[in-house]
Write a structure and sequence with these properties.
With 257 residues, this protein is an alpha/beta fold. Helix content is 26%, strand content 23%. The model has no long low-confidence stretch (mean pLDDT 94).
């Protein structure tokens, strides 16, 4: 077993055309300097506002929305993350991706009206180019985020609770992950951060915050509760244990902006 790996984890970047992708240039340079073994993108990287079901009665909200612009924004962000490795012809870390509920909007839209599906002139999940950007990409399974284990840690966009699979959340979110999985688990989705250590069971519950670029008008006071940044996992030993380090987006901007 290879030990002492390093990984970088982030979630919920919510790329959208009206918000600059400069934060991905900062993160790309950070990844190039750190050179982790792998990077885990926990999903909701594409906001896909053009396919949301909440603004259908708000013309002022939908007038500027564009499916094409949403897709272009996401792919631009992914290119920025890998640009330094391409430019300098260096081997990039492995990238592992997860479909979040916002990427899933594409599939939902097609299920409501299959006539809109098409790679050339319609909408398609393939427009996200996950086969290009990721070494492994985990799509939804049974209408819920996939859970996949890397080095003893269960990763997912969110982990559900109860028979209806609603996302675990709450004040003790990180603790609840261990109680649910009985092993280390790392998720995104809530935009908040948290960690709970159960050393005697070789388990860490981790909620990874978000990597959003701007405030959300619909979220109100919740905007102030969200933590923006990435998590470095050092000394990954395969048992589910590692040493976490939270790196804020503000820190990345100061260093690389």
């Amino acid at each position: 077993m290879v030990t002492n790996k390093t990984a970088v984890v982030f979630s919920c970047a919510h790329t959208k055309p009206e918000v600059s992708n400069e934060r991905f240039t900062w993160l790309g340079k950070f990844l190039y300097d750190l050179k982790p073994d792998y990077v885990v993108d926990l999903g909701d990287g594409a906001d896909m506002a053009s396919l949301n079901s909440y603004d259908t009665r708000k013309p002022e909200a939908i007038v500027s929305q564009s499916y094409e612009a949403d897709i272009n924004s996401y792919n631009d962000a992914q290119e920025r993350l890998r640009h330094e490795f391409v430019k300098n012809r260096k081997k990039r870390p492995a990238f592992y991706g997860f479909e979040g509920n916002h990427e899933n909007r594409i599939k939902t839209a097609i299920s409501y009206d299959p006539r809109v599906e098409g790679e050339s002139y319609g909408i398609s999940f393939k427009h996200l180019n996950t086969n290009k950007w990721f070494n492994e990409y985990h799509e939804y399974e049974n209408s819920a985020p996939a859970i996949y284990n890397y080095d003893g840690v269960d990763y997912a966009h969110f982990i559900g609770a109860g028979n209806y699979g609603r996302a675990l959340s709450g004040v003790h979110h990180a603790f609840a992950l261990i109680q649910k999985r009985y092993r280390s688990a790392t998720v995104g989705h809530s935009h908040k951060r948290g960690a709970y250590f159960k050393d005697e069971a070789n388990s860490i519950g981790l909620v990874a915050g978000c990597y959003k670029g701007g405030a959300e008008g619909w979220a109100g006071q919740s905007n102030t509760e969200w933590w923006k940044g990435v998590v470095i996992k050092r000394q990954i030993d395969g048992s589910g244990m590692y040493e976490p380090e939270f790196v804020s987006m503000k820190t990345l901007e100061r260093q690389y902006g």
